[in-house]
Amino acid sequence: MGPLEGLKVLDLTRVLAGPYCTMILGDLGADIIKIEIPKKGDDSRHFGPYQNGESAYFMSLNRNKRSLTLNLKTEEGKKLLKAFVKKVDVIVENFRPGTMEKLGLGYDVLKEVNPKIIYAAASGFGHSGPYSQKPAYDGVVQAMGGIMSITGQKGGEPTRVGPSIGDIAAGMFTAIGILSALNYKHHSGLGQKVDVAMLDCQVAMLENAIARYVVTKEVPRPAGNRHTSIVPFEPFETKDSKIVVAVGNDALWRKFCDVTGLKIVDDPRFKSNPDRNQNYDELRPIIAAIMKQKTTKEWQVVLDEAGVPNGPINYVDKVLEDEQVLAREMIVDLEHPVAGKLQVPGVVVKLSETPGKILTPAPMLGQHTYELLKEYFDYSDEEIERMLEEGVL
What we know:
Blueprint: E1 8-11, H1 17-27, E2 31-36, E3 50-51, E4 54-55, H2 56-61, E5 65-69, H3 75-87, E6 90-93, H4 99-102, H5 107-113, E7 118-123, H6 138-144, H7 165-188, E8 193-197, H8 198-204, H9 208-216, E9 233-237, E10 242-246, H10 250-260, H11 273-278, H12 280-291, H13 296-306, E11 310-312, H14 316-319, H15 323-327, E12 331-336, E13 340-345, H16 369-377, H17 381-389
Parallel strand pairs: 1-2, 1-6, 2-5, 6-7, 7-8
Antiparallel strand pairs: 3-4, 9-10, 10-11, 12-13
């Protein structure tokens, strides 16, 4: 049994932020009922790349879920959603604020249907504030939230972070919000609304950039791959590739100097981290010259033995082969009925007593419509077929 075994989640989300949230809950054992638009489904079903006609993008985010098609623009579809709300613990959506209210299915309505319901909404700018009604995608909130302004090469253009961290952070924070609301419900018996904005998440992730600006009044700019507060903490060229070295304190600095043969451990210019920061332009060429004397593998052995944090810059193909990644079961093979074998990232949270698991691949559109309507409401085949014909499902 997963830790969230028995938790029933109605999932109205699509694309990335919402599905990432419900994927986390599903991996931990929750029963995820994915509500999709009839005939079309989640937008991401139409995003490439494709394997045997199935979207790998969609499949990577929607394992451990059951798919039911439902037309929320029909009165019967709305009634059916409310019937589900009576029977589930959580409903998650990532529409633009106001969309559910226009359908007559906003939180104020659904909490009357089920006062214990936890209603989680992930959106670009949240359900309050002057930007609330603005549409947003990952690139927009990375730009507006400041992440792009501190990413990129020194002196270069602000750069979008590769993974869609605007969406992914919102998905993670929404999952945290849901679990927090569940704990409150455990004590009070009451549900509540969870409102997560992608922009808010980006601001929360700025970490020391805000601290640096507040203290120095200097606007942070892209600094390349170096750390803005710790030195040395960046990639260096080796004899054959590059290695990242992270010397996070003065004790590690002494070890680093010892194993690399650098005779500068007591040099007053570099003795403490503030000294190394102040004299970075003098220090870096000294370290760079010695790092070119060995291969990355050779440096890994030397630095690992000394306990100095380091690592190669792995491209994705190497990540999927990394012995630590594989030992932690962070690459999992799934067998999809149409797409066939697909590798997906594993469950991040490792629990000793109730581990999460990836049990099923992403569902086909509407794959579980009959199953779910019979399971929750004991509908007959004839009733389901009628709703299919009338465009309700």
